[in-house]
Design goal:
Structural class: mainly alpha
CATH topology: Sodium/glucose cotransporter
Subcellular location: Membrane
Number of domains: 1
CATH superfamily: Sodium/glucose cotransporter
Largest sheet: none
Distance between the termini: 83 Å
Radius of gyration: 22 Å
Order of helices and strands: HHHHHHHHHHHHHHHHHHHHHH
Organism: Massilia soli
Oligomer: single chain
Protein name: Sodium:solute symporter family protein
Keywords: Membrane, Transmembrane, Transmembrane helix, Transport
Strand content: under 5%
Helix content: over 70%
Pfam family, one: SSF
Shape: globular
Number of helices: 22
CATH class: Mainly Alpha
Number of strands: 0
Length: 478
């Protein structure tokens, strides 16, 4: 067991924890806690946006998918995920910022009423379970590798969750923004140096690129068959559209000091994410060259351990410290934001209807308490799902808001004829169709992606539910 490495990681964790506790001294109300008082400059919008997206799946999941199937296998993430942020910047940020709302659920209430607000907020909250669980799973794996198995993955999950939970509960989004700024620097610098060192071990970057070309890993488009094309589109839209109606994205938009900053920050964050996601892909490709058949076997059978094992067995201590600092930065930045977002939505869009008389101080206490409860649920779920792919946990999480919340949001902003009846029909048809495609219910999901079917059904429901009642009303009047 390398005590120098472990000590370095612990000191880094304590440092970010101290920053979060300091941020907590500046929290005065729910607006400070949820959106940092709508006061952040461009750099402090870009860094949490990028850092939140750059999580465990980006470092440990995407590279293995890339090795298995090339760029075609990672269209969902990073390409779909990064495009989500760019689309938010271009089409949503300015419009939502001007509404001066605290949560994305507030938009549904303002546009469609309480029923749609509660249901869409619940769908959004549910989607975070898998995403946060993926980060917790990765934390457990990191601590297990660091201690050479002395700490079990489950124990690592508990320790990692507590390390993140404390500063999020105390400091809220301000703590997330400040720690993300530091963690993004560590992440970018650390992985860049690791990539350079990996290239040297592999005999040069040209050898890594040659291997990727030889294995046809740069292929992006699917084979020209109906089945492959629709599943490619289904994968692309899952995070591209399903991530848009998410509270963590909305928090970054609303935390900016003005609408132009919100728009620009989302676009830069999305573009930066897509570009830098290639760095861990490059490192894993180099690892395959260096480790040979053992690396390929690990990529197929235990891919989540491939990068940590490569670093621990092939690199000197300083590279190990840089790698685990970067990896923990990626995981902690994502898990902190995704713990805060659903808790804020629950209090603002569900609990406030059950307890309408809460003042601001009570709401702030409720937000902090909900974070603790949600963290406990996520931890239990992650431990129960131990062994599940990190990439798959994240991917499945976004299908719920895609089929339930995306269409009411985009149509409400861009189609004046959208009505509450249309939103109800969109949610019902979207969710219902998606559920029908579950493998436990039917075999439809083998020939057409359920999330894409649900998205199409939601659009049909919105148009039909908004237009038909008016047409019938006009006929009755005639």
């Amino acid at each position: 067991m390398n005590y120098t490495l472990i000590t370095s990681v612990v000191l880094y964790l304590l440092g970010t924890l101290a920053l979060g506790l300091w941020a907590g001294t500046r929290i005065k109300n729910t607006a400070d806690f949820a959106v940092a008082g709508r006061s952040l400059p461009l750099i402090m919008v870009v860094t949490p946006t990028f850092a939140t997206w750059f999580g465990a799946e980006t470092v440990m999941g995407i590279p293995a998918k890339f090795i298995e199937g090339g760029l075609n296998a990672v269209v969902e993430d990073p390409f779909g995920a990064g495009m989500c942020l760019i689309l938010v910047g271009v089409f949503f940020a300015a419009k939502l910022y001007k509404l001066n709302l605290l949560t994305i659920g507030d938009y549904y209430r303002q546009r469609y009423g309480k029923g749609i607000e509660v249901f869409c907020s619940a769908a959004i909250i549910m989607s975070y379970l898998g995403w946060v669980a993926a980060q917790v799973t990765a934390l457990g794996l990191v601590f297990s590798v660091l201690t050479n198995g002395a700490m079990s993955p489950a124990a690592g999950m508990i320790v990692g969750t507590l390390a993140v939970l404390i500063y999020v509960v105390v400091g809220g989004f301000l703590a997330v923004a400040i720690t993300d700024f530091i963690q993004m620097i560590v992440l970018v610098v650390g992985l860049s140096i690791i990539a350079f060192f990996s290239a040297q071990l592999a005999g040069g970057a040209d050898q890594v690129f040659a291997m990727a070309a030889q294995q046809d890993l740069w292929r992006m488009l699917p084979p020209p068959t109906f089945h492959d094309i629709v599943f490619f589109i289904g994968a692309a839209v899952t995070m591209m559209f399903g991530s848009i109606p998410q509270q963590d994205v909305f928090q970054r938009v609303m935390s900016a000091k003005d609408a132009p900053t919100a728009r620009t920050g989302a676009i830069i964050g999305g573009a930066s994410y897509i570009m830098f996601a290639f760095v861990p892909m490059f490192i894993v490709a180099a690892a395959i060259l260096v480790m040979g058949d053992a690396g390929l076997a690990m990529a197929k059978n235990d891919y989540q351990r491939l990068l940590p094992t490569f670093v621990m067995t092939k690199m000197p201590l300083m590279m190990q410290i840089l790698f685990f600092g970067a990896l923990l930065s990626a995981i902690k930045s994502t898990s902190s934001a995704t713990l805060l977002a659903p808790s804020t939505s629950f209090v603002e869009n569900i609990l406030r209807h059950l307890r309408p008389g809460m003042d601001d101080r009570q709401k702030l206490f409720a937000m902090r308490s909900t974070i603790v409860v949600f963290a406990a649920l996520v931890l239990a779920y992650a431990i129960a799902m131990e062994g599940t792919s990190i990439y798959e946990l994240v991917s499945a999480a976004y299908q719920v808001p895609l089929v339930a919340a995306f269409v009411p949001l985009v149509m409400g902003l861009y189609w004046k004829r959208a009505t509450t009846q249309g939103a109800i029909a969109a949610v019902a048809l979207g969710m219902g169709t998606w559920l029908v495609f579950f493998p436990q219910i039917s075999s439809f999901g083998e020939v057409f992606p359920g999330q894409l079917a649900g998205l199409i059904a939601a659009f049909v429901g919105m148009v039909a539910g908004s237009v038909l009642p008016q047409v019938l009303q006009d006929r009755r009047e005639i």
